[in-house]
Amino acid sequence: MDRRNFLVAGAVSAVAGGALADDRRRSTSTTAAVVTSSSTVKARVIVIGGGMAGTTLAKYLRLWGDAVEVTLVERMPTYTSNIMSSLVLTGQRTLSSLTYKYDALRSKYGVTTVFGEVVSVDPVNAKVTLADKTVLTADRIVMAPGITFDTVPGLGTSNKMPHAWMAGAQTTLLASQLSAMRAGGVAILTIPKTPYRCPPGPYERACLLADWLRVKKPGSKLIVLDANADIVTEKDNFTNAFLGLHGNVIEYHNNAEVLSVDPATMNLYTASGGTFHGDVVNMIPRQRAGGLIAATGLNNATEGRFAGVNVLSYASTTPGAGKVHIIGDSSATTQPKAGHIANQEAKVCADALARIFAGGSPDPAPVTNSACFSTITTTQASWLHAMFQYDPVTATMQGVPAASGASVGWNKDSFEDMNKWFGALMADTFA
Ligand SMILES: Cc1cc2nc3c(=O)[nH]c(=O)nc-3n(C[C@H](O)[C@H](O)[C@H](O)COP(=O)(O)OP(=O)(O)OC[C@H]3O[C@@H](n4cnc5c(N)ncnc54)[C@H](O)[C@@H]3O)c2cc1C
């Protein structure tokens, strides 16, 4: 099976919890390190950001590229997965169970890791500067710095309304606030305008919290303030869950963009004129590409929020920045901002770079896929999967309806499949 066909098969196997492997990975020992002697190096690549996209890129470029030296720069010594992190709020997961190390990247694949903050990127000369003034140079740079948040007017530095949308301290904080909330209290969850990280994520968190509140905090209400005109994905399942199963807990408001907040009173003020008060507020702000993208001048898409890319190689479309590739949530494509898609974009980019370094051109017809499970209760999930293929007319990745779909309803089997899918995705990325 070639790389392209594997991506197609992956849409089905991933939903069933199958492994996200690839042809070259299977033919490569998983224990022997991929060694490149400095005298044989044919190209050097710096990867910025060791999350879902950057880590996958580093690993697969070492597997697929011929003598490519890869240096991954990441600010944190370990990675904490956002995926599954809503289950930390209900006490079903711990953050440590979602923490991943970079050891395999070094020992099995020969990636060089540097832990530090990248403060500037020179896209013309492919040069990267770290906070400690270290300067790294390469033939190409791959940027995968994820997202950053818009400022919420009125919030300041208060930690009273955590987003918990980047797994870590904010997740623990929101979990403790929910745990301390009185029975019969009011929790509020806000959903930002699209595009944001993980389209079904806020809706599945709302369902999960509603189920948990019903049992742990009887008589409580969960107000969902959605800045969008309607539920943005998996509409049938979330509508049925909000109105039916969780109808006694969830109060849903569309077109309810939060314009400002007051952490002293725990009030939120919305575009529709409504004021909402919560005992606990999960304030998920509007999002844009990781700060380094705008600082480098690569935020040329989505009204300056994200980075335009050529989806055949994920090279920047900013004039003069062709040596820089942007993958994962920072890039602006027609695909959702999701960890599974970040993994797929990384593979397309790694394949393109391997071909370019070998004197060729990127695959002219890439295919990607994404599987997604949504927690509807603390024990049941729904699912959806989507396949995308390159459309040469629009130069975008377009959904393939015949190979995409969603579950009708939710069940326990899908919850178990979710755990299998997650294990396979994280192993494909970090192991
Ligand atoms: C609650 C929640 C649930 C989710 N559930 C799912 C799901 O079920 N399925 C799914 O597919 N996706 C899901 N997602 C989305 C998924 O987590 C993201 O789409 C994915 O993490 C994007 O990968 P990324 O590599 O672009 O960014 P990240 O994974 O955030 O990685 C970015 C990395 O860059 C590093 N970095 C940033 N700037 C610098 C710098 N200047 N210097 C050094 N390092 C830097 C960061 O430290 C970070 O490690 C969920 C997200 C959330 C919040």
Tell me what the structure shows.
- Strand 14 and strand 15 (267-270) form a beta hairpin.
- This protein has helices at 3-15, 23-26, 52-64, 86-89, 103-107, 169-180, 201-216, 235-245, 291-295, 339-357, 412-430; strands spanning 43-48, 68-74, 79-80, 99-100, 112-115, 118-122, 127-130, 135-137, 140-143, 147-149, 186-191, 221-226, 250-253, 258-262, 267-270, 275-277, 280-282, 287-289, 307-310, 315-316, 324-326, 331-332, 367-375, 381-391, 396-399, 405-406.
- The chain is built from eleven helices and 26 strands.
- Mean pLDDT is 93; it is low at 1-32.
- It has 431 residues and is α/β, with parallel strands linked by helices.
- It has a five-stranded parallel β-sheet. A four-stranded parallel β-sheet has the order 13-12-11-17, covered by helices on one side.
- The protein folds into two domains: 3-148 and 287-430, FAD/NAD(P)-binding domain (3-Layer(bba) Sandwich); 152-282, FAD/NAD(P)-binding domain (3-Layer(bba) Sandwich), CATH 3.50.50.
- It is globular, with a radius of gyration of 21 Å.
- The protein binds flavin-adenine dinucleotide.
- The site of flavin-adenine dinucleotide has 36 residues, from helix 3, strand 2 and helix 10.
- Residues 48-54, 73-76, 79, 82-83, 85-86, 117-118, 144-146, 165, 197-198, 201, 290, 292, 328-330, 337-340, 342, 372 line the site of flavin-adenine dinucleotide (FAD).
